[in-house]
């Protein structure tokens, strides 16, 4: 019987529902974090292998750095933070299974991680059922709210909409959409198409490649034949390597047809090779080159710990910030209890490397500054535009008329 | 018009990649009747060889050229070792070869993860392979990517080398003899075990060469082999098991079909349509495009 329950627990999503209760008592009880000793455990849930590892390993490293800093300054509520790291292996059912393990077996107080929306969607019911907190550090497609997830990356009105505004201001009238075939690109493109329709922009084509796909010759040909003004790229992971190699081979350049990417940051630029990317655009809230004392300290600390050649990126910064935000929430709540932490979250601020961020308690998103950058030959990204001040999160795009039909 | 020509070239170049991968498999699966699930990991071995060589040799072009023979030897040696340790005990149990080599493939993937780390890595292509050549000028120029032309040339060279080896050398005659009738070959004085091992060396070595070519297209990772090995099996089954001619024709037909469908539909739909077409074809000709005629009883 126990064997059967354990087996069921390994069989993905459905197993995280009712069946696991048999193994770990009632779910409410299992979710209680273990804070009896002088340490408190937190979960780190990232893809350390597979197609997403190129991106997610850096996020884990950054969370570890924040934990070390907090521990060095006395911990949280007098307790040292002990990270428990799990590998989601770029596989969504594995993410759900490992999330369940972190909550029930390790009894973590909060979990930091996930990158793709597919992995977040897979773990969402697990965190909700067990009433445990997830801090999600990556920009995403919006149109989502969960009472147990804090979204510390950008939502669409803090990244994709500003990117489209920027393209429009540059006089680009037609775009081609290229993305990985899963929830983020498909939803993002739905939003982009609605925006384009309302703003007199033409979408000349829309193509998806399976996540992890490395065959992009046809897509490159289609993009080239479309003669679009620009490409909006929502590819994830190292499909970008194959895409940009093919893009260059097809004779397309940042001059002839610029590509705006929303999932390529400094770390990816480094491994794709700046010779394929120089001059292309990205939309984020943070770059390694973002000015400010908080960022200087962050970059310095990260390089000292992981190597001088290691760049910092937006999701890393958001992940780093999320640990500090959690600490501030816990201290305000004077408790590790997720319900109390949530209740204390509204208005929490932190001087993050990207600038001051504020938690919006209602949506559990944060106020962030939007930035457009141009990739340089040195692999770093130079800001070419920013929103000037933090933008209030609007995950359901309620503030835009053209978005009324979405969600 | 440019679009059609460009797309046909894309199809041919996809076919060339498929062909390079299927070529070695055609030798080990087709001729030796071993369902080698670890073939994809030999491709990976070739790709990682390229990566390692690039770290030690500074010039990207030179390292690529050195990688071709070295990857052939590395992957070939792995194949010969696999044959010697495991497969030679299983020649009469083809389904067991599937399970055993699948286990080996998982072990090799984990080994690669341990040595090179879980994140995928990339190689730098030499400058002369990152550009393209213009075939037709005008407003809408037709261009061929240099890297794709290089892979095409590599595939043609590999087919020629394999075909000449099988046709003209005494080793080739022995391989063909063993394929047509193992028992008769054995009683005629051919050491079938030595032929098996050599064939395995050659087939796996070709996988290594395919691995070098794949570094020009995309990232290198522990699971890169599994992603493409299914397509290679399809090429061989549709082409007719053990038939070099069938492998070549089907690889290119499949590549062009795929790219034309991708252009008119989407990547995912194209994959489905190709699979449906293959199923339909195999209903009509279960033995594949070409078959081997032998006097063997089995």
From TrEMBL, chain A:
Gene3D superfamilies: 3.40.50.2300
Listed transmembrane segments: none
InterPro entries: ABC_urea-bd_UrtA, Leu_Ile_Val-bd, Peripla_BP_I
Protein name, as recorded: Urea ABC transporter substrate-binding protein
Organism, as annotated: Streptomyces ortus
Automatic annotation (TrEMBL), chain B:
Name of a matching Pfam family: BPD_transp_2
Key words of the record: Amino-acid transport, Cell membrane, Membrane, Transmembrane, Transmembrane helix, Transport
Location of this chain's protein in the cell: Cell membrane
Source domain of life: Bacteria
UniProt-listed InterPro entries: ABC_transp_permease (IPR001851), ABC_UrtB_bac (IPR017779), BCAA_transport_permease (IPR052157)
Topological relation to the membrane, as annotated: Multi-pass membrane protein
Segments crossing the lipid bilayer: 6-27, 59-82, 149-166, 199-220, 232-256, 263-284
Similarity comment: family membership: Belongs to the binding-protein-dependent transport system permease family. LivHM subfamily.
PANTHER family noted in UniProt: ABC TRANSPORTER PERMEASE PROTEIN (PTHR11795:SF447), BRANCHED-CHAIN AMINO ACID TRANSPORT SYSTEM PERMEASE PROTEIN LIVH (PTHR11795)
Name recorded for this polypeptide: Urea ABC transporter permease subunit UrtB
Biological source species: Streptomyces ortus
Name of the gene this protein is made from: urtB
